[in-house]
Amino acid sequence: MLPDQTAIAAAVRGTRWHQVSVVPSTGSTNADLADGVRAGDEPGRVLIADVQTAGRGRHLRPWSAPAGTQLSISVTVGVPAAAAPRAGWLSLVTGVAAVAAVREVTGVRAGLKWPNDVLLEAEPGKRGGKTAGILSELATGPDGALVAVIGTGLNTTLAAADVPVETATSLQLAGADDPDRTALAIAYLRHLDAGLTAWTDDPAAARAEYLAACVTVGQAVTVSLPVDEVLRGTAVDVDVEGRIVVEDETGSRHVLSAGDVTHLRPA
């Protein structure tokens, strides 16, 4: 069963989300909304697809799942000129909203691996790991206005045989009993609306919420960098620009953006 478009639209009435569409299939929800931005669509659109045939993650990695097993949802967000220098925070704020929705709807313990991978802490005998990825892109409208297109793919009932890598999981595999995609979409959109307001009005509060959800800070990590370089140390902070701060064994601190990092994992 598809997520309930009518119920979602009614539940988010009064937020920035003025148009909600649910479709059985599309190539990429992000690509569809980006095309709409360039054609003049106003920000505040939500597009949910049961199946994406050309979904993408970071570094153009394919992101797909069988029908009915994932919440694939993209939104468009206007980027005010004053907030443009902080646009890198958009995907981090989105990760916080995804974690909050998972906790609220399913009760599964969730956190963020920097920058925005949603990780689940499984019940005994269940499967933890990454259950969601987030891709934030920028598009420009005909009037020159900057709009972010943010896509989230949240594995809900993906079976063990269908997970793309060993480190991936789904809400059901982690112990959630029949996760409701309609309820998850509603909670996610409400939390994202609030998080985006903090992003523009109170960046310090948005950063504090991120740090509270981030499980990377405080961990010993191994960071794969371009040109086959490896950095080992402890993640000690996420700075005001959303960059991870890693302190190596000599005490030197390295500040890395998502674009600098090929892979980050616990040491």
UniProtKB/TrEMBL annotation:
Residues 6-200 form the BPL/LPL catalytic domain. SUPFAM superfamilies: C-terminal domain of transcriptional repressors, Class II aaRS and biotin synthetases. One of its GO terms (molecular function) is biotin--[biotin carboxyl-carrier protein] ligase activity. Keywords: ATP-binding, Biotin, Ligase, Nucleotide-binding. It holds the Pfam family BPL_C. One of its GO terms (cellular component) is cytoplasm. PANTHER family: BIOTIN PROTEIN LIGASE, BIOTIN--PROTEIN LIGASE. This is biotin--[biotin carboxyl-carrier protein] ligase. It comes from Tsukamurella sputi.
